[in-house]
Amino acid sequence: MTLLRTTRDRGVTTLALDAPRTRNALSAPLVAELADALADCARDPAVRAVVLTHTGGTFCAGADLTAPPDPDAFVALLRHVVEVPKPVVARVDGHVRAGGLGLLGACDVVVVSERSDFALTEVRIGLAPAVVSLTLLPRLDPRAAARYYLTGERFGASEAVRIGLATVAAADTDEALRPVLDALRRASPQGLAASKALVAARVLETFERDADALVRRSASLFASAEAREGMTAFLERRDPAWVI
Predict the structure, then answer these.
(1) Integer Cα distance of 203 and 105 in angstroms
(2) Is the pTM of this model over 0.90?
């Protein structure tokens, strides 16, 4: 069963995360399928740009705690979004949590609906936004990153734009996307690839410098007793033992 819905229109390939029953959580199969689809887009000269979106009310709920992806595979996916020589434009109309914010950080343009909301919830289950820091910390306002990394608070679309997570918030995401996609269709493929390499260079530096250490840190946290309690509590819909 496919977990990704693919459509094409005038040089734009839309990849929609299509596992709404699990809130599009990042399972190992979904990560693999998305990576393969991006590789296909990279090879296809007819593809001018990629839109990454979702079905259901959640763009992505983060890692699938029942079948989490291998951290190395998730790092490879994030890097692929950053490196693919085509613009990747995210369209969000709903909730985004944890690892889903890492996907947005990897994208070049992020259009969100005014009803969308976001949270880095890892801290509440004994984890940390380790791997997603590769794409988030180069993008986010440092003070905002400190607040939302540490508190796990939910924030809205206008705040996502203010702190650098999103490009624009709009009542109608399709209307907001139209001029962006029209402009990308008018751009030269060579010019797009070269321009993307320029704006992605700072993010790619973090992969070269920090990826291995952050994968090790993520694996260590996932294996800890505190994280096991946090994830169990989450799945059982109760407070973890440390809540006071």
Answers:
(1) 9
(2) yes
